[in-house]
Amino acid sequence: MAREEKKGLIERLVATGDESVRDEAPKATKLLKEQHDQVRDLFKQFKDAGEGAHATRKKIIDEASRKLEVHAQLEERIFYPACQDLEDEKARKMVGESLEEHLIVKRLIKELQGLRGTDEKFEAKAVVLKESVEHHADEEEDDLFPAVEKEMDDDQLRELGRQMKAMETRLTSGAKPARGAKTGRQAPSRA
What we know:
- This protein is 76% helix and 0% strand.
- The N and C termini lie far apart (51 Å).
- It is built from seven helices and no strands.
- The radius of gyration is 19 Å and the shape is elongated.
- By secondary structure, it is an all-alpha fold.
- It has a single domain (26-173), classed as Four Helix Bundle (Hemerythrin (Met), subunit A), CATH 1.20.120.
- The longest helix is centred in the middle third of the chain and has 30 residues, at 54-83.
């Protein structure tokens, strides 16, 4: 962006106090779908690399795993807690199922991290990871996201998106959230 364009943007912010000019955060559901698509693309690259490209396929699975670990944290710490109060019972139930699916994916990621691309079990575990993630993403996109978009307005979805983008930046830059910092609505205590 040119310096003059930046200056104009800042001047508009100061003059109008317009939050929408400053906060261009994507809606939470759009951000999560984009992340799903990035991982789907990596799985396609994995398939296209061919069975003999062990080192390339290992790197692709490692990258997909890193993206999935960040994605899971965004959903578990921000998105899913925000979905606890949805009126749609099926959507609330899906959040519980999604958390269980995350456990399976995390286990597969951990197992894959301990394998070389040439290991006998690597291919099978990578395929199961792909199938699990794609099933999970499809269910969210087909059922959960529409329910969330029906019950939450654009401002709520953008606020969740803003929180998730901020957390994603912290997680991918290696920075830790400030102690006691809020990362979204907290789940109610069951004590």
